[in-house]
Amino acid sequence: MMRFKKLFMIRNILFFTAGAAVWAQSFEDVLPNFQDRALVLDITARVVEKKSHEVWNASSSKITIPGRAVGVKLLGANVIVAIQFTPYVTWEGDTVLVAQGQIWINIPDRGVQYQTTLQTIPIRFGEQVSFLPLGAPPSNEDAYIELVVNLSPYKAPNDTGDQGPEEDEKD
Predict the structure, then answer these.
(1) Burial tier of 74 (Cβ tally within 10 Å: 0-12, 13-18, 19+)
(2) What is the 8-class DSSP label of residue 139?
């Protein structure tokens, strides 16, 4: 019964936004100071129904730096999903993505339900990671929301060479 009601709510997603956390100064103005550390988060939000049939999607690409969150909001008739993805790079060069989510679902005759999630996801540059804020559907017949995230190093528009992650030489 709960999945049926989620299906109704998921189908009514109308709006998707993604944005870097607000800075006192625009990010483009300070980017030259952080260009060697800057990262790009490509986020695709999609609603999938019966047997992997995609009924809605939206994409966004945001520039950030390690430790600076990129927020995603999905607004629908009966559901609000707010997720913040924060990339981190360790001293060893490993990367992780911290996903913090808040979900509000208005279920008829039951009121608004609130859920939170916090996950640390290991990720490599160029790797796509799927994040299911409402959890995995129990069957192929149920609808679900999926956020596909890709993390990559920032490349300036005038770059002609490959500016991928540096790899340590190992003997």
Answers:
(1) buried
(2) S
164, pLDDT greater than 60: no
pLDDT greater than 90 at residue 149? yes
Task: Please tell me the number of Cα atoms within 13 Å of 12 on its side-chain side.
Answer: 12
**pLDDT tens, position by position, 24-71:** 445 556 556 666 788 999 999 888 887 778 888 889 999 888 999 999
Tokens encoding 77: 């008739």
Residues in the chain: 171
Alpha carbon 94 to chain centroid, angstroms: 19
The tokens for 80 are 């609000």
Report the amino acid identity of residue 98.
V
Sheet bearing 111-123, strands edge to edge? 13-20, 70-76, 79-89, 95-107, 111-123
